[in-house]
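Worked example

This section walks through a single chain of length 251. The input is the sequence exactly as stored; nothing has been trimmed or padded.
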Amino acid sequence: MSDFAAAARNGLTPAALEEVLRQIGAERYHNRHPYHHRMTAGTLTKAELQAWALNRYCYQAMIPRKDATILARAEDPEFRVEWRRRMEDHDGTTGWDGGIARWIKLATGLGLDEEMVKSERFALPATRFAVGAYLSFCANRSLLEAVASSLTELFSPVIIGERVPAMLAKYSYVTEDTLAYFMPRLTQAPRDSDFALAYVRRHATDPEKQQAVINALLFKCDILWAMLDALDYAYAEGGNIPPGAFVPEAR
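Given that input, the structure is written out below as tokens.
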């Protein structure tokens, strides 16, 4: 396991900083989580997939709010022009024809009620805390750190490439239409991560800023990992669903 806590002690070149950030993804991204492994192995129950879709919606719905927070803090108009594409990707042109709407299609395709999903009332407490922590991080830390926290998108095509074929092959009730959210992300995420990575390489100019960038990406990986930890604890066989959280009809 790499010592990311002191990776930038002596300063890094932009290329070396990028290498550290990519190593974080290789070691800490949530495609390494057992819940994801069970998903791609085809061993999750339908109830576990429903719980994943419902809880992940809270995260998806927060993303454009997070990006609006970052936009409000950015003074560079060229930055704002580029960054606002992220909101358009998720909200679409009407508010309900972008990525969030496609995630709802995923959730309803798994048998969940649309209004229940959109209410977010039945998400796990840990999910709500994790999502809130990420939004707070982007509002209260430096703009550079907020941008760096988005760099999990560097690794998004990897997890999509593992998840989508496996779900189509191993869950008979999952269709390409159900998973329509993911295909646009194969082009959106690389576009966004290329911009964010170039920004980080350009602005993380000393050891302190470089370490802050590294810590921001570690924090974001922890957020995504913690969300799957909570799902595993609540909905795996013999799990413990907190009061008020989603209870599947058949576990």
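What to look for: The CA atoms of residues 79 and 129 lie 29 Å apart.
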